[in-house]
Amino acid sequence: MATSMLSHTQAEASMRPILDFAKDVGVTSNQSLSSFPRFKEFMQDLVKRTTSSVDRVVQNIAMSSCIVPLGNFQGMANKTTLTEALNNIALAGGDPSVPPIFLVCITAPSLYTRRLPETDQKGGPGYSSVTPAWRDGLWHVIYVQSWPEELDPSAVENIWEETSETMNILRHLTPGGGAYQNEAGAFEPDPVGAFWGMDNYARLSRIKKDLDPENVLTVHQGVGWKKQDPRYTCYPKVSA
């Protein structure tokens, strides 16, 4: 969690209620709040903390994620519904020997700026192809299942299916919420809408056709991706 919009004192006051709550219910054993003069120092510290906290490597993982828009936090009814959905995801199944990982990341772009610069708005020279849902997103929710050893392909397909279906609980609650592409499910049911939005995808498709008319450079669920392409026959058959 990071923001450039608060001083250290303001950040302490802002985070105090949730840190006190986490401490009282016993769900955290380590809390810290630091300020950095530049983004470089922040990233160096983040990498150091992440590297030192990794005690095992799991190579086989299935992941799905969803961006939760600001509107889902407005009003008690929406808050209650969102809480119930997150609780259902947290209590979802999986292999008891390898418990699922459930993350709620408070790292959306809305914490970094209150207003998108005019040059970066639609039609401006800095306009990005990132999903517009990020501009109004507040939380980034991730659900991960892993398996430490080799499994039968059908079992792997089931894990991917369960992982995607579990996130459907939140997808149905956040229509148009999208997903952060770097940590999205490999079988996102709506990759165009989730990763870019229709307007952005149309623009990207035009660029793709100009630069790669034969679609040589293709990736799973990327721009110009075709599910029937024989190059993707190695992927599990997940309906999402």
UniProtKB/TrEMBL annotation:
Domain Berberine/berberine-like: 179-223
Domain of life: Eukaryota
Gene3D superfamilies with a match to the protein in the record: 3.30.465.10, 3.40.462.20
InterPro entries for the chain: BBE, FAD-bd_PCMH_sub2
One Gene Ontology MF term: oxidoreductase activity
Descriptive protein name: Berberine/berberine-like domain-containing protein
Organism: Aspergillus nanangensis
